[in-house]
Amino acid sequence: MAEITYLEGIRQALFDEMERDRNVFVMGEDIGAYGGAFKVTEGLLDRFGEQRVIDTPISEIAIVGAAAGAAHMGMRPVVEMQFIDFIANAYDMLTNYVATARYRAFLPCPMVVRGPSGGYVRGGPFHSQNPEAGFVHTPGLKVVYPATAEDAHGLMKAAIRDDDCVLFFEHKYLYRRIKGTLPAGDHVVPLGKARIAREGTDLTIVTYASTVWKALEAAEQLEKEDGISVEVIDLRSLVPLDEDAIMTSIRKTNRALVVHEDTRTGGFAGEIIARINEQAFEWLDAPVLRVTAADIPLPYSPPLEDYVLPQTGDIVHAARHTVRY
Amino acid sequence: MARSTAPAKGRREEQERAPSARDSKSTAPGTATPTQERAPRARDSRSNDPLTGLAHARALSRERLLELYYWMRMTRVLEERLVALYRQTKVVGGLFRSLGQEADAVGSTFALERRDIMSPLIRNMGSMLVKGATPLEILRQYMAKGDSPTRGRELNIHFGDLDRGFIGQISPLGDMVPVMAGVTLSFKMRGEDRVGLVYVGDGATSTGAFHEGINFAAVNQCPLVVIVENNGYAYSTPTSRQTLAKQFVDKAIGYGIPGEQADGNDVLAVYDVTKRAVDRARAGGGVTLIELMTYRRKGHAEHDNQSYVPEGEGERWAAENDPIDRYVARLTGELGFSQAELDAVDARVRTEVDEATEVAEQSPMPEALDALVGVYADPPVMEPLWFREGGRLGTDRNERAEGWGTWNTTNDKPGATPAREAQEND
């Protein structure tokens, strides 16, 4: 199999699912003729036509709401937020309407809301956000944030086939930088199964998305310079969360560090640490710390952005501290 | 009766002569006056208009005309029963009345086919009854029973059924417009002969969801009818605080869609204007916005004392423009029904409501652990709270056989020694 990028993995998954199931269709701003701001949906219009590849007005509320309505009727919409930052416009629709639909009204809502997320791209405050924590808090939604090309592909397929609404965060820094090779056949990665990105014995780093790669760099450095053996867990999905993978690793290493690109206060790291505290306190040899972005709207200029976002050196520093504790 | 705003050219002309057209029909509520601004007015007198211009209503059979009366009467009697239950504290939450708006709810949904999908608002209990919701379901729902349509999860008339063709509302106003845009988009994509009808109030027209939803539906030529029920108030806020537009129907122009306005307290006029819009949607004509002029005679909910309503306003509407009184006059007048026929309907309604009440009162409350079921398709049940009966402490799953204390004093753990050495060398 040929090598594909993270972005191509997603695009190929959309193609495959639209071929497989006539109920799958895509909607969003500039996704048809233009192929999307990042060209994720390029080629879909030619292949599937205007009925199934719909360019919409600039209306995130309507895009998400209409996806829900179509999903009730048996369709499986995949809608794009041009930048995931704009999902905030649809927050009411997602949290009040979509998330509650099955529970309060027995209305199926099989839909995917996807979009380019994350920083390290000099995108400034409105093209760099990681808003996943705002949605993991809402029962009824699922949240996926892949790190590899294979997972971007396989998780997208699982998300489209899932019977509930899945928010699919795509890291735009990884879009064209990360490559992988898809296994032959229908590659589906189930939601809620974490991946051991690197095996180790001294410290568990729990992370997802872009910081999986930073954690792997840090692990390499720690191995070389300190002889510390780091296990890196790529969560893949935050809801559902693979608690077992986290606890199993901690029972082995007795130390954990949680890393994410999102801001600190109310970030998902707090939730992971709370669960470790509840479920594996007796296994710990050190407090569980977190490496995250600072609580600051993400600035544009490189020295500022680099300071605010977590870097490999930060993870190395925190890992040494945890292991020495 | 209804003022039509043509979608194509000529709309502007229509618009310009609209005021005189409205002036000419002195019985229409909603005519702007300096003092009352856009708040609907009570009609000056009860109307006995012949069915002039009501082509669709004229085509209704005797049975169908009587059915309209049945649904309006059922709406009112059932709400009166709910008031009694509310006062006995058997209704757990708030109670929302549609007194005086029965014609607008019933007449509009009456224009739909069974296969069509409707999404109601809080004052559309009548619409839901027409679509097949039963008094028993509504009573159980208000009383938070375990066998209510939502098994006790949602309140009042927040429920639906896709088979019978209605989707339950949620409380954030205007949200159902985008949802119904998507429902009707699916009809179009699949080439199904179905249309959608969604209700919003005057207040919801101020939301972003309304704007985005109706515009999205218009651009995509969705087979959707959007009804704005102008009942004068959104909770306590009069329409003059919602918009500077002279009338809500004017908003249709901005979306490039047909707009029509009708007397919401005339059930046949409501049916007629809605049927016209439904037919247009079915024929591929896209979205229509309808403004129905009516009046909310009770408060936002039963607790609301309506302190903000000018004295005598509600009483005037009750005396002069009650939709059931008006329809009864028409039925027993020009339409030739006997009082005995209407009395028989009234008796049937009372019996049905009595019977439903008896059954609903016997219904059980839900089991507490049912709260954990059905948030997701997978997993189907959420974990019980560990600090409640049936729950399990998280640490139980990861209990450490060696007991408390984990510091490895022998330093024989791989990795630990080099790390400490590194620290000492710093």
How would you sum up this structure, described in words?
- The complex is a heterodimer of chains A (325) and B (426).
- With 325 residues, chain A is α/β, with parallel strands linked by helices.
- Chain A has two domains: 3-181, Rossmann fold (3-Layer(aba) Sandwich); 195-324, Rossmann fold (3-Layer(aba) Sandwich), CATH 3.40.50.920.
- Chain A contains eleven helices and 14 strands.
- Chain A has a seven-stranded mixed β-sheet, sandwiched between helices. Chain A has a five-stranded mixed β-sheet with strand order 9-11-10-13-14, with helices on both faces.
- The mean pLDDT of chain A is 97.
- Chain B has 426 residues and is an alpha/beta fold.
- Chain B has one domain: 3-Layer(aba) Sandwich (Rossmann fold).
- Chain B contains 15 helices and eight strands.
- Chain B has helices spanning 11-24, 55-58, 62-87, 102-109, 125-130, 135-142, 176-190, 208-219, 251-255, 267-282, 313-320, 323-332, 339-362, 394-397, 416-425, and strands at residues 3-5, 117-119, 196-201, 224-230, 233-234, 237-238, 259-263, 288-293.
- In chain B, the strands form two sheets. Chain B has a six-stranded mixed β-sheet with strand order 1-7-8-4-3-2, with helices on both faces. In chain B, strands 5-6 form a two-stranded antiparallel sheet.
- In chain B, strand 7, helix 10 and strand 8 form a beta-alpha-beta unit.
- The longest helix of chain B has 26 residues, at 62-87.
- Chain B is globular, with a radius of gyration of 27 Å.
- The chains are: A alpha/beta (325), B alpha/beta (426).
- The interface between A and B is large, with 66 and 60 residues.
